[in-house]
Fold these 4 entries.
Entry 1:
Amino acid sequence: MADARERIDVLDDRIIGLIQERMAVSAVVQRTRIASGGRRVHLSREMEILGRYRDALGKPGTPLAMTLLELCRGRI
């Protein structure tokens, strides 16, 4: 069981790193969109993301995606 917990810790570290990377990329996208006269948030794109998480993870995927989007763009 200790090996499995250690593996989970490694996976969690990777997930956190990927989220941080996503946040950085999202910031670039937002700055670029705003600089070109667009809005900070692209709602149809966010709906695509919500759908992808829901399709892959079932009903719990939606709040997970919402949390991820909030981390990456802040609250609207």
Note: The chain has a mean pLDDT of 95.
Entry 2:
Amino acid sequence: PVADEVEITLAFADGQISGSGGCNRYTGSFSLSDDNPFLITLGPIAATRMFCPDPAGSAESAYFSALAATTIWGYDFGDLVLSYGSGDARDRLLFVAQSETEAATETEVEAETAATTESLIGATWQWVGLTDPMQQVTIDSPESYTLTFLEDGTLQIQADCNRATASYTATEDGSLEVTPGIMTLALCGPESRSEELIQKLGFAARYFFQDGHLFIDMMADGGTLEFQP
């Protein structure tokens, strides 16, 4: 059972899942089997990476592990059930429906979180933060580190005293691939994160939005880059 003070939510819409893991917000994709509509496959889950003390932290970790292993869905007396592992009573996630007011609020939040390629384009994104399993960093001068996604698949990058171009591929399910290209080689100051930004963008795997900010998750739990418009 989940502690009373921890609220874990899950919403399904148009091939996407989203919600709160009890501390961090997450999004991902899902598909149902053509042969058996109760068989479900979930894609990679992208989430914000705030530090979460217990009980939320341990509950969220267990939830994300179970969610990623889910293979069957169904209903039990009106409650949603997701089964994973052996599928017995111990290996189930049980969800109760929210009230109409709660659901409406959740829907508004999920709409802000969903990944859309149109939302990437048209803004100059300033790098404001980096979170990984070892650290949480606030960027001192966000205006010196920016991304501009163009419609033709070009990514323009300002990395402190250097400028770079890259190509990118983004999909509506939140996947993102960045291939670094040409970069100037000026020597920035000792506190510069110029090379770090370029290197981390090369490991981009997924993107999503929350509260108007862009988040880019890196491969292999390499952390999350946060940008503001």
Note: The chain has a mean pLDDT of 85.
Entry 3:
Amino acid sequence: PEAPVDEVFGLGVTVTITPERRLYSRRSTVGTVTEIEFNMAALFSSIGTRSCSECGREMIRGTEWTCPNCDVTAPIASPRRFNPMTYAAACTTCNGVGSLQKPNPSKFIIEPRLPLCKGAMYSPGFFPQGYLCKPGNGGYDVVQAFSARHGFDPSETPWEEVPAEIRKMFYTGDPEPLEVLFTNPKGKTHTRTVNFPGIYGWIRDWDVGGTYTDTEVCPRCNGARLRPEYLAVKLSGHSIHEMGTMSLKELAQVTDSINAPEGHPANINLGTVKKRIRFLMQVGLGYINLNRVSATLSAGEAQRIKLAGLLGSGLTNLTVLLDEPTRSLHPREVNALYGALTELRDEGNTVILVEHDMEVIEKADHIIDMGPGAGVNGGIITAQGPPSSIIESDSITGKWLRGRANEAREPRNPSGWMTINGAVENNLRGDPVRIPRGVLTGVCGVSGSGKSTLIIDTLGRTLNPVKQTTSVAREPLDPGAHDSIENTPKSTLIIDQTKRGIQSPSKFLGLDRQLAKVYAESAEARAKGLDVKVLTRRCTVCKGRGSIRTEMEFLPDINAECETCRGTGFGQEAWAVKLNGFSLPELNSLTLEEVYNLFKSHEKVTTPLKAVLDVGLGYLVLHQPGFSLSGGEAQRLKIAKELSRKRKGETLYILDEPTLGQHMEDVERLKGVLHRLVDGGNTVIVVEHHPGVLVSCDWVIELGPEGGPEGGKVIAEGPPGEIRDTPTTPYIAKEMVGKR
């Protein structure tokens, strides 16, 4: 929802570029998002060459293609014919996807000795168990009709006892229409004759994650997505699909060799292609290709891809809003990003960044510093003006712009060593990688060097397997390919920035139950006979939701605060007992710091709250919705929960870029928290670009030397002060002396 505001003027046409990956279409690629693919299509259409399908000689371009040898002709393809998203150009077998989903019944039926509706099917969510076996769903009615026709009971007959030909029909379809009695959730019925295409006929188009299917390359186009006549057109000896599979670094070399006749309109397309490829390479994306599916991009990659789509567009008088464009960028790549933003400004646009990177902030034309704190303690403009005036101000950002030496600490001695052997996922080279235990280790390297593949995908997924929670378009779960991992700690936890599992800070930290116990043990509650069960009863009017929904037929539903419980969801009894001037429901609107100060004498309440204050989240509201937290806040809340726990034995904590979205003041606090985890006898690994964090580590491992095929190798390891001659070395050295 929009934030409330009295008036906004002078804004103009606005373009917002955020890190969210809202690019989930299977057909959406790097090429389509950046529009490089469309410009490439125009080049193939206007200056491409084509060989004769009969004799192989190069054809002559005119109003149509003509072979000078055998008089074979063919129409000149328009740019749309080089776009697999166009029906007339897409491969007729895979419809332009490049792959087919092949049914794999062994993924669907995991316990054939059980009945279909009693555990035979793999069902990670509502589908298929709920849809096929729960009354009130169309799938249930179809299965009942199918099983009745073929003489088995889906709730009683073991699947392996159902005849093979009937099992096959269940997968691929019944040749005869079914007479189905449909019953809706309200009990109303109607009979209809339907064709049953089989379970794989139902899920064929949406099982893109391969939960029940195997993905195979389309046998007709061999993954190229286009029809043969359009793949026959070449530029510099390559088809448009072949160019799409090259890394951007390789593609840049090919496009540099392409020349259009002077004055030809294709020069505009060629210039745009070269400009956008050059920008993507400069910001560390030279390892990706145009055919890369958008949904596989990281948040930082997605944002840079979308920014590339603006460059060279010729648009002016725009207001361009960017949310932390430096996220996931190696310091070496930040300058290239700044150059692109400056170019947008110089073309007549207004560029506004929400940013924490001091290198970018000090180069801004105008700075607006918000504060002085976070949450309820913020929201005020504490300083604004050119960087020179901010440096002289008393604001927090001004302090960090003035610079501060960050000397490398005396490194701890490792308690042992883990070793990852034979890691070869993506661009990893398979060399043994040693990681010290009992210390804080920073893993760094330029974008695409293999950091996350090594630590998150290989080490993390091996030691802490991710549980599958959805059946559609899930992320890969298997660990990265490797031989073995030796000498690992007892337990492993990946602390990421997802908000999954965080309903509110209070529920996540287990405070609801503890606070209810404190109130139930009070003299007032005992006198009134109110125990924990009574105090935590839900409001009978809104059923504990805190709001009442009114259906508006053809208009959006209206949600209004429940007047009975005042939006808290608590029953009336909870309001009857007060401690420190507040009833249990009234605590909902207090910050975590305020709750901590009210209940300092109750250890089970204050222990998790003290950890929250230590990580700088005291400003969060007790029952603040989890969806309203930033990724950084969610991650720090998870760290706080770990700090408040009493784990037995060493735990390995893995964090992927924990400084994302954090001001330097927050980064300083984060460093202290990470060292507290280590001081508790644990091992901490951070995948990080931030020089301030790397300087604070006991051990640094740098992968590189570049991204993509030129990365995947450990190029340096040791205490931060001893790292030499790597892409990160200059920035660590600069951090140590505190220069900006």
Note: The domain at 416-489+650-737 is CATH 3.40.50.300 (Rossmann fold).
Entry 4:
Amino acid sequence: MIVVTGATGKVGEPLVAELLAAKAQFRVLARDPRKLPAGVTAVQGDLGDEAARQKAFAGATKVFLLTNSTPDSAALQNAVIDSAKRAGVPHLVRLSVLGADEKSPVTLARWHAQTDAHLKASGMKWTILQPGYFMQNSLSAVPTVKKDGAIYGNQGTGKFAPIDARDIGAAAAKVLTSAGHEGQTHVLTGQELLTNQDIAAKLGARLGKAVKYVSLPDDAFRGALLQAGLPDWLAQDYVLMGQTVAQGHAASIAPALKTLLGKTRSYDDFLQAYGQAFA
């Protein structure tokens, strides 16, 4: 029996769809089971509630751990790992982040590295998925594409390999339903290197209008993020991650996704599904 947390987000929804298609035996710990597809078995409860966790984890063979990234997420995920250990779960799979490192200047990378280390020290079998930039994050540019015909950032002409969240869900399903992934960290990227100028051109071709990428100075980009309502720590993380791309440190493709899935989604595939949102 597989137990899934975070089942209604960008990764969780496609993961649940993949598990349903595979006719896997699984259940979901969910605050609001009404948001789940028909046919999904759910334990209603909050991930922060120990009683709900123990009810969900009883008899489980694998747990998939995914939470939102918030200042208390590392503590919450560590508590979930400890709960799974107490419940006798033999194997936990968690969604981390590309570049997780306790010495990273990026807050998210430090938080995830702390939980990766906690999982490895738990005594359970473990698998860690470390995805890079989600293609779906491009949707945050919908307002500026509609208003200005522009995508804004601070990544210059740096290349990176964006990954479709649906492929992350499919990769997680593969790991949860097959053997041989114990003790492994799978770095997940898309299979094509793109600049933001490439992405703007693809989006423009899709929409039939000019779309440009505007690379802002770091301070201006940070100010725009703060004005959009992001907390200070997250705005700073986006600036730092953008610098990584601009400096050429993200211009690599990891083989794990193709190894796990065979066929992966391109950015054109993403636009086929989501491009209308920008119109």
Note: The chain has a mean pLDDT of 96.
